[in-house]
Design goal:
Number of strands of chain A: 3
Shape of chain A: elongated
Number of helices of chain A: 6
Order of helices and strands of chain A: HHEHHEEHH
Helix content of chain A: 55-70%
Oligomer: homodimer
Largest interface: A-B, 32 and 32 residues
Distance between the termini of chain A: 65 Å
Largest sheet of chain A: 3 strands, antiparallel
Strand order of the largest sheet of chain A: 1-3-2
Strand content of chain A: 5-15%
Radius of gyration of chain A: 24 Å
Structural class of chain A: mainly alpha
Mean pLDDT of chain A: 84
């Protein structure tokens, strides 16, 4: 998990994953949008980090080397996250409860002032 | 997101989060199990990384400083993960399909050999 989270902790690598979520790409096409900001060796280094973490798989098909996302690594992150699900659901419940209180107070105030004006 | 993933990329910090998933702890109690392996300043440094990433909130209540998980930061990770859900669900579908094929083949073989033996 440390390797995976460390791989995810970089905006270029997350952008590469986002691109791969649209389909398979060979290294050249995957690298293209990043070459304005960095060299090809820098891009391939990022790709290697993603491969090492198991998030991306690079296959060999003759001269064509498509890269694709590896669902299992994402599943591992999701499984790890699941133990904390209750916390973000709770925080949403609290927000929901708070918003209901605010709305209820507003309605009471609205009615009060409304009846005073009449 | 880089800060959050970077904070998650350390086993001590993930262990601290796991402890906080059981309830709120003050810094001293949270630090206790980690003091066999590292100093108190090292533990508080890890805690600061978690706070900076928004994963943990430390409040002040007189002399008692409880730490707790911040659900919203986990929600952000979960939301980011959601765009890749299709990939791990797909990989499970493929595994499921493969297992069904293997089971079907086994059944066919079993029947064949079964009938030969009779």
């Amino acid at each position: 998990m440390s390797l995976t989270f460390s791989a995810l902790a970089d905006p270029t690598r997350r952008a590469m994953l986002a691109k791969l979520s649209k389909g398979e790409f060979n290294v050249t096409d995957l690298a293209k949008p990043f070459l304005k900001e960095m060299s090809l060796p820098a891009v391939t280094k990022h790709l290697k980090v993603l491969e090492k973490a198991g998030l991306v798989t690079k296959t060999r098909e003759a001269q064509w080397r498509p890269c694709k996302l590896n669902g299992e690594a994402f599943k591992d992150v999701s499984d790890w996250m699941d133990q904390y699900r209750i916390f973000w659901e709770e925080s949403f419940d609290r927000l929901d409860a708070y918003l209901k209180t605010v709305t209820a107070k507003k309605n009471v105030k609205g009615k009060k002032y409304g009846s005073n004006k009449k």
